[in-house]
Queue: 2 jobs
Job 1
Amino acid sequence: DTAVSQTPKYLVTQMGNDKSIKCEQNLGHDTMYWYKQDSKKFLKIMFSYNNKELIINETVPNRFSPKSPDKAHLNLHINSLELGDSAVYFCASSPSMYSNQPQHFGDGTRLSIL
Amino acid sequence: AQSVSQHNHHVILSEAASLELGCNYSYGGTVNLFWYVQYPGQHLQLLLKYFSGDPLVKGIKGFEAEFIKSKFSFNLRKPSVQWSDTAEYFCAVTTGGSYIPTFGRGTSLIVHP
């Protein structure tokens, strides 16, 4: 059973399009995250949700809009895609943002903008 | 804000060689330290962690890391690497005020059989 699953695994699209990435965790965790990993492999936090509530919103363009319908899901919608959005996006979850338990990651979604 | 530096970006070793990957952080207070590994085509998974106590931490697959507070370091070691250790290795730190980890940029390890 995959603990944190994201779809799609690969996403190739053109500039200006709108796309979504879905993430689901079956671990019963309260907190979920989106990270962006750029071409230099830096993993940077984008958003964090705790029990469906937005906790962290780093300096991310407002073209990126996360949505958490319930605490097991955290989807990422991106409007008007730009070349600089090309990256690998990782979803992760942890038991609670108030504890130091390690995060569990999805396999990543490789987004390529043509 | 804290930052994490991994100075070795690419490491190439032969099987049975010893490994040490550097990790330094910049934060003067209490820290919690992690090493994650990402095997090719797979997700990041926890290798080991340090919260408190013995500064020498044992992880899975024969890895260990040593927390040296005076050097702000948490280097990862393995005495004898295997081809299957080929992966990306990420150091991460959380501090007393936040449980959201800051990651280093990763080190790509290639082990030749």
Job 2
Amino acid sequence: DAGVIQSPRHEVTEMGQEVTLRCKPISGHNSLFWYRQTMMRGLELLIYFNNNVPIDDSGMPEDRFSAKMPNASFSTLKIQPSEPRDSAVYFCASSLEGLTTEAFFGQGTRLTVV
Amino acid sequence: GNSVTQMEGPVTLSEEAFLTINCTYTATGYPSLFWYVQYPGEGLQLLLKATKADDKGSNKGFEATYRKETTSFHLEKGSVQVSDSAVYFCALKQGNMLTFGGGTRLMVKP
């Protein structure tokens, strides 16, 4: 398996524009996580899906952020409108359901909003 | 709620020095515990894990023991290399939720 695949790797956009980040989890994994990493706040969990259903979105910063998982092999994180403070590295991770199973991370998308 | 506390970095060591990165956790019940490593420009990778009390996880010369009595999972390595320079994250898993610590940057000098 190629692992968790995220696209794009880098995104530079202007304030106010819509940004869509994409994630393909490892085949067979039924849990998917979106994280945001910044120097100031470290690694923050934004949202978690299980079997394509959002289970916990309490980490989503505000209504400008939305996430979907239309099927088991694809998820998106959308920011509309984007703001400079959204600049961060966004990671997607997937795992098998269960207490002892580890999460596998993608390479991340580095987002810069100017 | 669950939480993970790691020692603040950066930790700077000379090659072949002994490494300890402290990690303590707060959780109800019996979580699984993990150490992840992040090299520059990459995502997090699993380094080792332990799923029950007194278990020892080990990989690439790194070790950590699940200590329920002290709610700790300290990472150790007997002799670090320059290539170990990275950010290390301690994490716990309860149910299906992973909770990470703030990360500790390790810098190893030749």
